[in-house]
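Board notes (copied after class):
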Amino acid sequence: MPQINFHTTPQFDADLAALTEALKLRSKSEAIRLAVHEFAAALRESAARKAQAAKPSP
């Protein structure tokens, strides 16, 4: 994947540093990839639960 450049806020920088340190990750890039992966997984799980709940009971 190509490099992504974006502007951040001081709060984002602090949160990213905290995540990186707490999980003992090697880089901020690794922390961002992990956070995006975890969030996407939670979205998929939520969508699956909603789809299951919408199915009519037999």
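Comment from the instructor: The mean pLDDT is 93. The CA atoms of residues 16 and 22 lie 10 Å apart.
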